[in-house]
Write the C-alpha cells for this entry.
Amino acid sequence: MVIYQEGRESVTIGEWTDRIYQNTPQEHIITNVVSGRKMRVQKYNFPDTVVWNPWSDHSKDFSDLGEDEYPNMICVESGHVSSPVVLLPGTAFEASQILQVNISCLFDCS
C-alpha cells in the first residue's frame, strides 16, 4: 500500500489501486458512475481511509470475483493504517463505521 495525497475532488478507479489516504473526513460518499447509486460511509476514530480495487491485473486471483467484475467493485476501508493502535493489557479502543445505502433519501430525507 502507498500513502496517497489526492488532488482530485472525486476519486475514480481506472487501474489497479491500493491507496492509503491519511486524516480523511469522517464521511465519504461512494457513487456508482454507471447506476448513480450512492453509499455513505461514516467513521468515528478512524483517521485513515484505504481504497482498493484489483483491476484486471489481480482479479483472477480472487475466487469470489469474476475476471470481468472488477470495474463494478471498490473496497473502501476505514482504519488506523498509517499509525496503528497498540493496545496494552487492560486498555480499550473504540471506533466505528456506518455504511448506509438508502438511495431515495441519502441526501435529503426531509
Notes: The longest strand covers residues 38-44. Helices lie at 55-58. The chain has a mean pLDDT of 87. The two ends are 41 Å apart (CA to CA).
